Give the backbone structure.
Amino acid sequence: MNPAKNAPQSPPQASMSGMNPLENFRMAFESLWGNKLRSFLALLGIVIGVFAVTAMISLGQMATAGITQDLEAVAGRSIFVQPNFNEGQDFSSAPIREEDLQALQALPVTVIPQLFTSIQYESKPGERRSMQLQGTPGDLPRLDPTNKIARGRYFTDLEARGGLAVAVLSDRAAKDLFPGREAVGQVARLYYPGGARIDLTVVGVLEPPSGIFGGFGSSATVYAPIQLIWNTSPTARRGEYAFVILPLKKGADAQQVTRQVQRIFESRYGKGKYQVQSTESFQGTLRSVTLILQALLGAIAGLSLLVGGIGIMNIMLVSVTERTREIGLRKALGATSGQIRQQFLIEAVVLTLVGGLLGVLLAAGLLLLITATVPFFKVYILSPTTVFLALAVSALVGLFFGVWPAARAAALDPIEALRYE
């Protein structure tokens, strides 16, 4: 028995042979710190890649959240029923009737029937312009909170049932009918296309749409009692409505109620005559589109990770060449090829992980700045999943591009390596 062979290995020898993975981590950080400029330049590609991917994905999520919030503010959680224009239906051939509304009352929704027609006003003597006259029930803001009064009030249910000549204007209609003046309390003189005239006392003005939809402005619409339009319009037929809005009650399942509404209209009139859509279906479509955009932008930004990975591989190959004698010494002290391969793989992964972490921190800062300065991005989103994926991908990049340099280091002959100058 050779006592020297069985003697415990001294700590310096264990360190030099690279037996301990933790020791490899320590040495990787020492290598990074010892060559700061070279490490920084090697990391730059990874930092930019992770920053771009994280920022693109998070901005897509923030944009989706912003549009969804604006859509909910404008339309709420509602279901819309109207004639199926895609199938050639129109309001005259497929009106919504009183008995349809009664059938909908059993569902967990608020039933708000509406009708509309074109109306004209004199912008100046002898010149008429068109706007929309929309019939609604009274107290609309109570039935559908997405309608908000800016000035005055909405006409009451009693006024609506009595068909009184009162009106509420959209912000745009108020500006068109009474430019430079307060509309509330004024009388709006309007004309049906056939020439019949109605005078409506303006009792309120609605708030314009907010958020991204506010950029399009509100349409010029005069809201009046349904009963009044039935009494005065030459085209509106009593007991018939153009469309119905069904705001969902709390806890109601949008998909389930949508199917129930479809069944009601299909059982009464057959398939395809009416179109039933919920705001949640719009949101689902929106999410699908933004997910595709996020994937596309993420893939484009991911190209910089590829470039960063090539940079890491290049710098690791240089490191292997510079440390050839060190590798030979470790092998001479007992380190196996597997341990040498592990050491250089760990160094490559540490490099890319540090780059990934810096990229995530930069992206977090940019997202904070955008949230603070751009009104459209109301919600700050940097999800843990995105951070985890960014770091995981950067680690995988290090692993993938570190394989060749690590294999090259592991394959070195210890004697030849010790002779290397």
Q: What stands out?
A: The chain has a mean pLDDT of 83.
